[in-house]
Design goal:
The protein has about 200 residues and is an alpha/beta fold. It has 6 helices and 7 strands; from the N terminus they run ααβαβαββαβαββ. It has one domain: Vaccinia Virus protein VP39 (Rossmann fold, 3-Layer(aba) Sandwich). Strand 4, helix 5 and strand 5 form a beta-alpha-beta unit. Helix 1 runs parallel beside helix 4 and helix 3 runs parallel beside helix 4.
Length: about 200
């Protein structure tokens, strides 16, 4: 999906995926402490990055869509928190290395030719001891109408993630059917994979 696609989606009235954070991310709050640094990958309109900032983290929200990032800054201002933003094509971005205590990737789907490289870059961006929190759609999601790319090759399984993030300490990983209530584009039953992983110290 192109930057133009996302700019058009985020230009719609309201917030495409709502203003509340992803429920799985919230469930992992025990991994977060004020003063930590966090990277919100492909953060769109900022609902997850802003929530991280509300927990006292120093957050960099990265996305290809300037329209999305503009709305993220507005949301941060409304919530009274500071959010750094950077517009970037993640496949060409100079990913920071060993920089963040937390990397959050919520519904970020890459095509097969770049997926492994992007996942390794996320892992590499973690400080030793840092934690990755990821939720994505599985191929089973093609049975549902609750969001995600309608292309099997862009959907992830737990086994794929174990390979992509090899070298990390898996704290939890599961494939489940969740009930989404995230704006108008993520709503209803959805087949997802959830991963929490620590980079060894």
């Amino acid at each position: 999906m192109s930057t133009e696609f996302w700019n058009n989606r985020y230009a719609e009235t309201g917030f495409a995926y709502g203003t509340e954070p992803n429920a799985f991310l919230v469930s992992q709050k025990n991994h977060l402490r004020p003063g930590m640094t966090a990277l919100a990958v492909a953060d769109g309109e900022g609902r997850n990055g802003v929530w991280l900032a509300q927990q006292g983290l120093e957050v960099l929200s990265v996305d290809a869509s300037e329209v999305g990032l503009s709305k993220a800054r507005e949301l941060a201002a409304d919530r009274g928190v500071r959010l750094r933003t950077e517009r970037a094509d993640l496949t060409a971005w100079q990913w920071p290395e060993q920089t963040f205590d937390v990397v959050v990737a919520i519904y970020i789907h890459f095509p097969p030719e770049v997926r492994v490289r992007m996942h390794r870059a996320m892992f590499g961006a973690l400080k030793p001891g840092g934690v990755l929190i990821l939720e994505a759609f599985t191929p089973e999601q093609l049975k549902y109408k609750s969001g995600g790319p309608p292309v099997a090759e862009m959907l992830y399984t737990a086994d794929m993630l174990r390979i992509d993030f090899a070298g990390g300490e898996i704290l939890s990983i599961e494939e489940v059917v969740a009930n989404l209530a995230e704006g108008k584009y993520h709503r209803g039953p959805a087949a997802v994979v959830r991963l929490v992983l620590r980079r060894p110290a």
